[in-house]
Amino acid sequence: MDDKVKIELEFPIQASPSLLYQYISTPSGLSEWFADNINSRGEVFTFIWGESEEQAKLLTKKSGERIKLRWLADDDTSYFFEMRIQVDEITKDVSLMITDFAQEDEVEESKMLWENMIADLKQILGSK
Length: 128
Prior knowledge:
Alpha-D-Glucose-1,6-Bisphosphate, Chain A, domain 4; 25% helix; 3 helices; single chain; seven-stranded antiparallel β-sheet; alpha+beta
């Protein structure tokens, strides 16, 4: 299996960190922008897009700050995706930091996918 490349993205979002956290950490919040539907049982989240579904295991969750998951279909346990809220101490600007992994030939496609999903999230939040 080819090694994957780490992708780190930053998206400024005009929303309170507590509201944003609800949209990145709960099945109901995530299903508004990340997937068509999301179910969770304990630490396993099932993401549904049309006819396909993928399962991810919750690795870490820090209230009000971040959520980190790993796709169960991925054999390599060192790969994950994380959504982390960062607040600038001086300006109080809020950003959503994304860490993900993709095959080298799929990096641009993965970045575009995140950009489109975050655009949907911003629209739901009423952020520019």
